[in-house]
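Q: I have two molecules that I believe assemble together. Could you output structure tokens for the complex as a whole instead of separate predictions?
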Amino acid sequence: MVTKFSRRQFTGGILAGTTALAMPSLAFGARPRVAVIGGGAGGATAAKYIAKDSNGAIDVTLIEASKRYYTCFYSNLYLGGFRSYASIGHNYYGLSVNRGVNVVHEWATSVDTAAKVVNLGHGGQVSYDRLVLSPGISLKYDSLPGYSPEMHSRMPHAWTSGTQVQLLRSKVLNMKKGGTFVMVPPPNPYRCPPGPYERVSMIAHLLKERNPTAKIIILDPKPKFSKQGLFMAGWEKHYPGMIDWIDPDTHGGIKSINASSMEIETDLDTFKADAASVVPAQQAGSIAMAAGVTDGDWCPINPANMTAKADPNIYVLGDASVASSMPKSGFSANSQAKVAANHIRGELSGSRVYEARYANTCWSLVATDDGIKVGANYSAGPEKIDVVSKFVSQGDESADVRKATYQESIGWYEGITTDMFS
Amino acid sequence: MRTFWTFFFFATIFCSSHAKTDNLLDGADLGYGEYLSGECVTCHSKDGVDKGIPAINGLDAEVFASIMHAYKIGDMDHPVMMMVASRLDEEQIASLAVYFAAMPDAN
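A: Yes, here they are, computed for all two components at once.
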């Protein structure tokens, strides 16, 4: 016997369920308060899901300095000319209007964890019962000899999207004919493991069209990198002779960076760049340090719910957290946000709390219609987030499969940004 | 797109001896399906629009469950979907199926 379900019955079920959950906390008068710091893949998703699923029973305030958020994911595709800059920008109207989230465009400067208050840049305060920290990364400028924040304009890191990426694109477009582009990727762990190599691919794509005798040199602090075999085979196929990846055993380490002369000195040689992207080592966003939930550079979390090990009232999502084998990616942050949102609702309104389930997939574009991907799903172990199963694109895939993978990544971008912001 | 999925549904029925269409939706729990759907909507747009990844809102629950079982046993072979389906048990698939069947599609 097949049970028949009508759409009407189930829509009714959803409404009845959420209303019933909303009642107990409303009955007590003051709504519980959640503050979320950072409006990226972790923070925007958490704010939305807490507001949406609590159906107004929980007061959610999202603190994000930018009124328009440019995603880091897909910023490489803007560099390569596959996306417009406008298409990677998003606003918070959907969260505010559709979900009832209070969106505050301010910097969060400190957190008083005893009083449960976030202090804002212009003197205001936001009180919370639970705090979600999703601040992303900050850059460790002193990790590279001679590098400093003032060098941003000469050798853009472009690792936090926005105007830095626009600047980098203009520098690549204005390189002299046959010039040299130097990429310095960051050491592990860092935001977006395949990012530097997708960036190189996209710059090679631009140069192949406009400046085909130009060269790209990668001075890598790491002996290996994400999807290395797939990237290197793609470079050989699409950009033969253009890209030279130099590992740390060969170059011996970066000894100094001189932004005014555009020179990068290693044991092997001094490389003179016509344009460069230098990405320093990274650590959790500074507000995580200020909140006292870091241990070293990052924030240890409890795998079952993403609470900070240092404070059970604070959840840390995305790049800033130590999520073990989960890479620092927008997909990971979005996945972690849903686990945290479910747990926060349970804590504050008594709704059902389900087991933590995490997932990630990272798509990268190597050349026109040549997409590759790597992904895994994860569960919460007692001490860390553990891999359940994983996959990676194969080296012998057909052009049709690669094209389908790229098309899929476009669908993913639409999916995740709708999930975050609407 | 509906035609596409319907084709896969029947292809799955004909090709697989594992399809147990009479109890595919046993144990469905809508609230659990809503929670589990978080993993799906990172890619399958919540607006129910296909922009490179198939829309799944409003899909018939039995078709949805059949497709997920086909991925789980390898009768359909997309690496991401095989990974997603591999850790879903029958009740979780049923819960997702009734949740997405209740979601409005883009039309």
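A: One point stands out. Residues 2-15 of chain B form the longest helix (14 residues).
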